[in-house]
Structures are given as C-alpha cells and as structure tokens.
Amino acid sequence: GNIRRINVNSAPLTVEAFRKLKSFGIGTYQCFQETYHYETYMKMHPDGPKRDYAWRLYAMDRALQAGIDDVGIGALFGLTDYKFETLAMLSHAFNLDHRFGIGPHTISVPRLEPAFNAPLSNKPPFAVDDSSFKKMIAVIRLAVPYTGIILSTRERAELRRELFEVGISQISAGSRTSPGAYKESQTSLEEHEMEQFQLGDHRTLDEVVKDCCGLGFLPSFCTACYRSNRTGDRFMELAKSGNIGKLCVPNAISTFKEYTNDFASTETKIVADEFIQNETEKLEGATKHKTENMLERVNSGERDVFF
C-alpha cells in the first residue's frame, strides 16, 4: 500500500503560503474556527497569533483564492451553545458556496473532551449531550447534503455506530493524538498524559472496518477524484446532483478489496470479501461489469484501480 492523498490541517496561512501548499499537491485543507461566537473566541484566545478571529474565519477564502480546490471547516462543540455554533458554521458553508461556487468538502464535529493542560476541557461550559449531538449532525446533513461529515475517535464506538444513521460519512480509526505517538508500538503513561484529547474509541482500523461491514456500510479508501480532476467546483457539481455515487460505489468496492487483500486480518477478510461480493451484485449493466473487472485486476496484484 501507499499514501495517495494527504490532507492538511494547519493554522491559517497567507494567500502566498496557500499557493505554495497547493504546489505540493495536497488534498483537502482543513482549519476549524474552534468557536464562531466572537466573545467566547476572544476569551479562549487572550493573546498570541490565534487571537485574530477574522484572520482565522477567512482562512478558507484565502485558500480558495490561492487555488486550493477543497476545504474543510469545523467547530469545537462545547465552548458555547451548540445551536448557535451549528447555525454559524452552516452560514460559513453557505457563504463559501455562494461566493466561490465551492462549499466545504468536509465538516468536522468534534466535541470538547478532557485534554492535557486544559482545565476547561474537564467541564465544558456548554457540554453537548448525545441526543443533541445526534440532532445537530442530522441538521448538518440535511443542510449540506453534499459534504463529508467527519467524526473522530473522541466518540465511543457504540455512539459512532449510531451516528452513521444520522449523517456521519467519514470516521477515523486507530488514532493517536500525542506528539510522536505513532513511533511507539505501546501507549505509555507519558503519551496518555500528552494526548490532544482523550480517545473514546480505541479499536484498530481492522476492527472498525469489520464492524462497518456488519452494520451494512461499505468502507472506502478511494482517492480517485484527486487523480481524475474531480475536485473543487467539478466535485461539487457531481456531489450536489448525487451523480458522484455512480463513481463512489465502484471505487469503494475496488479500494476496499485492495485493503482486504493487503492488510485485513483473516477474520475481517472473510467478512469483508462476502460483503464486497454482495455489494457488487447490487450493481447493474456496464457499471457492474467494470467493477468486476477492477476486482479481477486487484486480485491479480494491480493496485490503485479506479473509475
């Protein structure tokens, strides 16, 4: 396997710096506003470069002006009323779509969790309960149906399963959130103390993939759009019309098969291969034939096969 796409989550940059970032061939640029509530933002950022609310708010404008095709927004829920935060974030999404013809490629919905050296995180001033969290995600999905809604490993496995049903379309797995954590095979006490936030889901990628199959959701490792010029407004046209699904399903099947052949445990491979076969059988006509051909190519050792 290899890395075919790198998304970048970084502090806001200048237009010139964004152009340089684009020249390296990145995927989606992500930057979260933390909170859209101005007074709360200023309270949480009393000094330093992050204190400039407007500079952060207009980061996506500068990124799009620099030619970056896909951007991702988000807020840290728990700092202020989640209803205000949701409406403000949706306003941000609509504004980008109106001005640039490109809405957010992704929207992230992290809840404030206990974190190292952050006393406020132990008792969020506006904690969002699970029921409200589900409603919030459903509202975002209905308001921005074309976007990918991302859920991190902050949330418990059982809740993550439920959130698939109300709008979540992308999740992380096997995450480690402390500096240098991926260098070590075992989690140390020091690493735990330095975590950016506490994890709620400690399952491996293999376990998550198997679970998704059991829930009836097709895992996808596809990055085809970035090699096929389906980004920015071109992606938006396909996503908003729903036509992207005609490409996503075959490519999901192909890349999932690649994953199972190269990385899945024996137990997961058995479950996944049956699931792949069932999903392929649901396809029709030329799409089914092309998908079956892609699977044959993957099984023969070819990689990075896509529509």
Question: What would you say this structure looks like, in words?
Answer:
This protein has 307 residues and is of the alpha/beta class. It has two domains: 8-203, Aldolase class I (TIM Barrel, Alpha-Beta Barrel), CATH 3.20.20; 229-307, no CATH class. It has 14 helices and six strands. Strand 5, helix 7 and strand 6 (170-171) form a beta-alpha-beta unit. Helix 9 (205-215) runs parallel beside helix 13 (266-281), helix 12 (245-262) runs antiparallel to helix 13 (266-281) and helix 12 (245-262) packs parallel to helix 14. It is globular. The model has no long low-confidence stretch (mean pLDDT 92).
Q: What is the distance, rounded to the nearest whole angstrom, between the alpha carbons of the first and last residues?
A: 19 Å
Pick out the low-confidence regions.
none
Looking at how many chains there are and whether they match, the oligomeric state comes to single chain
Mean pLDDT: 92
What would the principal axes of the Cα set say about the shape?
globular
H/E series, N to C? EHEHHHEHEHEHEHHHHHHH
Output the CATH homologous superfamily of the largest domain: Aldolase class I
Number of separate strands: 6
The largest sheet has its strands arranged as 1-2-3-4-5-6
Quick one: biggest sheet? 6 strands, parallel
